[in-house]
Amino acid sequence: MRTLETPRLILRPLTPEDFEDYAAMLGDPEVGRFLFAQGGMSREDAWRSLALFLGHQQIRGFSNFAVVEKDTGCFVGRVGPWQPLGWPGLELGWCLVRRFWGQGYAAEAAGAALQYCFDDLEATEVVSLVRVGNTRSVRVAERIGHQYQGDTDLRGVRCHNYSQTRPV
Fold it and tell me: What is the model's pLDDT at position 100?
């Protein structure tokens, strides 16, 4: 997995050294509200989440990236592809530290990760599953060109299914 750059961000592979920042992000109840955690995640569950992404990298050869602000080196969040067993497709997901919401970072990072999916992973379709009620993530999905495909249940959670196919 290579490192990506946007005008304001660096997207690099997640590492175990990201744990403290990652756990703080997932421990925020507002961040966790739209994840499967439905509230702030414990440090133990955040550890398992990070281990899941690191393991996915080993098994599939790709995973979410750590998103870092170029100017400050601050951990902004995670964004990128993953496709665990039984998932409804190659998914592009994102999760940002709350203090970085509303600055366009999610769309900037997701756009770069989407291009990575098409160019490096040679994906023909990329989906984003957005928990019902998460209007911020709906706007991100639409900003990167995803189209609404309907709603679906994923592991007992109602989600909007957004996707787009590889440009021709």
Answer: 97
Amino acid found at 153: D
Q: Please say whether the beta carbons of 66 and 53 come within 8 A.
A: no
- What is the SS3 assignment for 27? helix
Name residue 34's amino acid: F
| Residue whose token pair is 């019902």 | 132
Instruction: Using only the alpha carbons of the chain, give its radius of gyration.
Output: 15
E strands in the chain: 4-5, 9-13, 65-69, 75-82, 91-96, 125-131, 147-154, 157-165
- The residue-averaged pLDDT of 16-41 equals 88
In angstroms, the CA 120 to CA 26 distance is: 28
pTM for the whole structure: 0.94
Q: Which of 65, 106, 56, 104 is nearest to 84 (CA)?
A: 56
Q: Is the pLDDT of residue 9 over 70?
A: yes
Q: For the CA atoms of 121, 126, 130, 135, what is the dihedral angle to 10 degrees?
A: 110
Secondary structure class of 4 (helix, strand, coil):
strand
Angstrom distance (rounded) from CA 47 to CA 11? 20
